[in-house]
Amino acid sequence: MVPTDFDIYNTRSWKKNALLQPAPRACYRRLWDQGWTDVLRAMHPDEPMFTFWEYFRDSWPRDAGLRLDHLLLNAAAAKLLIDAGVDRVVHGVEGASDHAPAWIKLEPNPRKQGRRSAS
Q1: What is the chain written as a DSSP string?
Q2: 5-118 adopts what CATH topology?
Q3: Which of 1, 62, 71, 111 has the fewest other C-beta atoms within 10 Å?
């Protein structure tokens, strides 16, 4: 599921696909409303964070991707968030998956995290 139109290079050829339909998007919004944090969007609010590129129509060289992989944290875990991203370079390796790995980094010692934010 692609949460918003910002999470896809171009909606035109995908409009009828289940990934962009209102019902799945509404379910995802309900998760946000429950207090879950969409980590990739929280860490990169203004840049596309695609995790999937088709193997045809030169989608990888054109960066014509979609964000299909999602990392969600509850409120307690979100306080420990240090960084998140997508290892795009992995997708460019010959024989790689059509998905690139998404990752997060959490503070391993919550006490340190609390002290660091106070300075």
Answers
A1: ---SGGGBS-SGGGTTSGGG-HHHHHHHHHHHHTT-EEHHHHH-TTS----B--SSTTTTTTT--B-----EE-HHHHTTEEEEEE-HHHHTSTT--SBPPEEEEE-S-HHHHHHHHH-
A2: Deoxyribonuclease I; Chain A (3.60.10)
A3: 111
